[in-house]
Amino acid sequence: MHGRPRKDPKPEDAAASVAKAEKLRSLQSQFLSNHHNKIYTNEALEVNTKLLEVNPEYYTAWNFRKLAVEHRLSQSDSDPDSIKSIFSEELKVVESALKQNFKSYGAWHHRKWVLSKGHSSIDHEMRLLDRYQKLDPRNFHAWNYRRFVAALMNRSEVDELRYTTDMINSNFSNYSAWHNRSILLSNLLQRKVQGFFPKELVLNEEYELVHQALFTDPDDQSGWFYYLWLLDQTVKADAPLLVSSWPARDSLIILEDQCLDDRALSPFNTFHSDSGTFPLIVYFNQAVEGVNSSTISVESVLNANSELNWKPLSTNNSQTAQVWVTYLNYPKVDVHSEAYPVEVSIGHSGGIISSSGFHYSHPSRFAFKVFARPVKTPIGHGGEIISWQDGNFALYETSPEEPNPTISLDQLNSKDDNEKTSSEWRAETIANEIALFQELLSEISCKIGKLTLARLLKAHDTLLSPCANKMVYSEEVIKLYSDLRVLDPPHSQFYKDEHSLTLLQQITSTRESLLRYCFLHGDGTSSFIGNSMCLRLNNLSLSRMGSIERLLWVQMLDLSHNELRSIEGLEAMQLLSCLNLSNNKLSGFTALGPLRLLKLLKVLDISCNQIGSHSIDTTRYLCSSPLCHTEEMDWGRDETVTADVNLANYWEAFVIFRGLSLTQLDIAGNAVADEKLKSFLVKIVPTLKWLDGGELH
Amino acid sequence: MGELATEKHVQYILSVEKRKDDFISVAMEYLRMNGAYWGLTTLDLLGKLDAIDVDEVVSWIMKCQHESGGFGGNIGHDPHILYTLSAVQVLALFDKLNVLDVEKVTNYIAGLQNEDGSFSGDEWGEVDTRFSYIAICCLSILHHLNKINVEKAVSYIVSCKNLDGGFGCTPGGESHAGQIFCCVGALAITGSLHHIDKDLLGWWLCERQVKAGGLNGRPEKLPDVCYSWWVLSSLIMIDRVHWISKEKLVKFILDCQDTENGGISDRPDDAVDVYHTYFGVAGLSLLEYPGLKAIDPAYALPVDVVNKIFFGR
């Protein structure tokens, strides 16, 4: 019961309730008997009408009415007047039911049913709606019904848009009206209806409208969500774009067929693999489908004879992903071999499409060179343990001629004039909005205002990047998020996540800032990994990982001693072979889902997290499993391993670890990590040599 | 802060089951199947399902089944997908899915899919994303998801996505936390959560928490205990539940208890009912309140029940 006060019923009320109940019971049983016996007489309809007046949610009674109408129509002599009176009666019953309960699904649907039979008129329904929507301007049934009537009777979207303007002007705090406005306006803009083109002019007017709402009552949420949508319309490009790749544009990649043993080379662009192949990763600004050998052409002698197989890096096995990977063969390994050019062309034939249906429309091209070197002395494979202790790391000192590791690809697309106007308009709009909100916030302290300003400042930096390749406002944004954590404690983790993302953008924005986090691991000879450069983003209070598009080159990553709950997005780091996630807040194995796509991962430290300490798993549905029908559980293959464990308790570990080829795992310091689990893991990961620091035999 | 009055709530649920004479009980007869699901799931979360006579419940449920395969809200009432899911869920609670003629039930549900991928609630054609969730959840529990066109079902749900990241009843319908649960749940079960902008939706959902700690279902509305379920489960499925204050929400739910007579209400000091009692307890379970069984955010059944269905052998 909604909004009914809790109190002990007075004796007289209780008696009245029993009497009322008795009456309703009698109506209900008379009705059911009529319904079961298909009795559609006037008396039966009268019982039904009375029942629905008292209890409009009684769905079977609405079904009965429809049957009765059909019955009466079949009996009538198709005289238009009598048909009309049959339907008018139904409209009346709906109206009186709605008086009793404005939220009755059954009543609203019955009215739609009558209208879809061609009865009533648009004027009549609009008058009725105007009355209802004045009484309850937020009723979503009425709004849904309004959209239904408008569509059924071809009322123009421009008229409906005007209605939302009226509703908003009479009360800014009407989220329902703002919502409907966003729907109508998107349609009008998309169809470029007269008066709604160019988009820039329309959006300028919308900014003005929403400013009035925001400045009238900055604490009311209704306008802010609309504002956020406008901002999104302003900055977001519809069409998918290529953001970055590995190998990066114009880079020279040194491939090692065994192990790096020549310290003269930059660790940023060396890559080692035993498999004879190396990945080619393309990173888009949004999820796309349709990446294949015909939409991306790769010209090189390295794959002359074979068609490339592109794989979406999707944690739920979907054919849509923001990041795609394929594998190219190593060139011939020879000391005197030349550097082989590889040229990648994207989008010259259509087919790459975003989830919202936009085509990749800026054909682009980039090239890199690869060079394979043999090793002098093959070194052991995972024979030695990798230690993450601080003493094993030394800050990397770069030589000036070394290539920039963070080079990224965006905005290499040529732009036509039309886009130039719109990008100028974008920059101008964002600058105006920033000024406006800085002024507003100098007068009042408003939570969503601050958040919006932070978003505007980030949008500003994103628009300029990577041409400027510098975050102008990141300090201010970080300060705003810190303020917000104090101002709005219940949402502090949201602001912390945003803070982390901004910090990572800042760190990865320039070569100088990134180099402060680059370390060489060990003495360079004892490591079996091909590249001893480690990116150490440890101890930064990061609660979320981001800016991964700039970190595709990383092969060894230290994220320990942060506050990470998830590693969403890490699947893009296809080169990763060593990962330290110890001392974070990971709360379940399913949070490690992205690791399943990292085929080169050998060393993993997840010690001292919270795996097994929580009864609710927040990544249960973000990880591919039988629960979400993205894969079958193939226990059978591992019958001997799984025979003696309760699979309902171990399925997460099974799903995550079975496909990994780890040689070293640290898992101590998690509630789940008892001896039984460890022996289970040893069985399902046969490549494992080191577990929690101990050597396995 | 008070504690969860477990024993009182158990007594309350058992008493509601027996109460038949007051007006509200009579008026609610048509949805007794939903009531059974709310009450019995609450008892299971509280660890007290053994207070129930299983055979009695199962035989009553089967009397509500229509020859079409669907279930009505009570004996003699028309079949509807809403009550069909509740019937299947209750049978799953008791591990009694084997009493069903699975072909018949799943045929009924699959028969309600429309050409555009959407689902009708029954033969009278009301379309709503609630029914998409129900169909998908029900068929998944019965291992018959392949009976429908999942791709079309998903694309219909996606067509109901709004510019605030949420979902409405039909394309263009305003976002509402209950509807969002249905759509996120259906996308979760079909492995399609990549259609959701988790940050956009997560922020909209976390802004449902009002100063008092409770959650509302839409902007500028009053908080209500039932959104502890709709909002929380959605936030959990997209891994953004840490964006709200769990402590404040626990307090709000506990403040809505009737500590004298048991039951939980929509807001403090309002009248209690089984619906809000279920959503309050289920919300506390999602908040990892001590002593409660864990509930699955997508299937709305205890995790052990769901794990048995999908990982049992």
Automatic annotation (TrEMBL), chain A:
InterPro entries: Leu-rich_rpt (IPR001611), Prenyl_trans_a (IPR002088). The keyword Cytoplasm does not apply. GO terms for molecular function: Rab geranylgeranyltransferase activity. One of its GO terms (biological process) is prenylation. Its EC number is 2.5.1.60. Keywords: Prenyltransferase, Repeat, Transferase. Residues 399-421 are annotated as: Disordered. GO terms for cellular component: Rab-protein geranylgeranyltransferase complex. It catalyses: geranylgeranyl diphosphate + L-cysteinyl-[protein] = S-geranylgeranyl-L-cysteinyl-[protein] + diphosphate. Catalyzes the transfer of a geranyl-geranyl moiety from geranyl-geranyl pyrophosphate to cysteines occuring in specific C-terminal amino acid sequences. Belongs to the protein prenyltransferase subunit alpha family. PANTHER family: GERANYLGERANYL TRANSFERASE TYPE-2 SUBUNIT ALPHA, PROTEIN FARNESYLTRANSFERASE ALPHA SUBUNIT/RAB GERANYLGERANYL TRANSFERASE ALPHA SUBUNIT. This is Geranylgeranyl transferase type-2 subunit alpha. It comes from Carya illinoinensis.
Automatic annotation (TrEMBL), chain B:
Residues 4-300 form the Prenyltransferase alpha-alpha toroid domain. It catalyses: geranylgeranyl diphosphate + L-cysteinyl-[protein] = S-geranylgeranyl-L-cysteinyl-[protein] + diphosphate. The keyword Metal-binding applies. It holds the Pfam family Prenyltrans. Its cofactor is Zn(2+). Keywords: Metal-binding, Prenyltransferase, Repeat, Transferase, Zinc. One of its GO terms (cellular component) is Rab-protein geranylgeranyltransferase complex. GO terms for biological process: gametophyte development; root development. It comes from the Eukaryota. One of its GO terms (molecular function) is metal ion binding. This is Geranylgeranyl transferase type-2 subunit beta. The lineage of its organism: Eukaryota, Viridiplantae, Streptophyta, Embryophyta, Tracheophyta.
